[in-house]
């Protein structure tokens, strides 16, 4: 459970980051760039392999672009989730506590909910305010209203939708209430992953809580939304208990799949007909041919929780000005198209202005015109803990 709590705090956060694994993709300066005079900006990231590949693909394009490669050279340091090395927050905390400056922690790529985990081990002013006037392409960003604070610049969105088998489900649920009723009407054909192992399961539970709370709650880490709204929390977990016997079963017992991939495996092999899923994971698997073409994505109302992944600059970074130039490139239309083509990352810019897209029809079907954005800080941990205490034992 502790592993997921870390992941949930970082979007699926605070996974291990080893220096020995960090050079997952060093790139060379483009021909013509004076390497001795061009600063190197290192982006530190973590998560799934697809995230690493997308960050690296944009870094390679940056380093080949003469409009940018004379200002900075980008290197990616990354660890894929599931390693057991020292976590990124721990490494940042160690550097901070040792009084280090001018480190290669130039840019931290993370889900913004993971910021609190890092600040808890460093200081409230560990990340510097970012001057967006020095990032011309920030004007391209369409989700400015969702951004919490001035230390975070988003570069991709993440969204969960309802993934379903269109061969067996002709009319998928369009609302949360319709979904809950569908689960009861179709016992054994729905699953969500253990929230302590995957963000799609966490989202399913979290949405059940926040659908009952004022809209402002989803943008606040204030624990009053938990302590002063116990009835709403109780109702949501009562709903989870009510749905429990209607979920996917093996050997006569309800099973909560491990990780996001676990529930998608059940959907791909048609052991279930429906599950909440990250859009980019479904599309990536369809592109690889491991997910049947019959699997479709459906948004529901109110929408499942979404999030933004972005960049922060620590005050221990060695070249903050060069970092701003790199962030500017990641917000360009060219870079946003690369992110989509590499991992089907939801763009944070006007998608009508993107060119040379693979599966542009998929983007049109899953485009986030609006993002039901959640930023609830440490409350995430309490959701996971309560589910583990009240719902998980029902499967034993």
Automatic annotation (TrEMBL):
UniProt keyword annotations, A-Z: Signal
Annotated signal sequence range: 1-25
InterPro entries: SBP (IPR006059)
Pfam families xref list: SBP_bac_8
Superkingdom: Bacteria
Keyword Signal among record annotations: yes
Coiled-coil region: none
Keyword hit for Nuclease: no
The protein, known as: Extracellular solute-binding protein
Organism expressing this protein natively: Ruthenibacterium lactatiformans
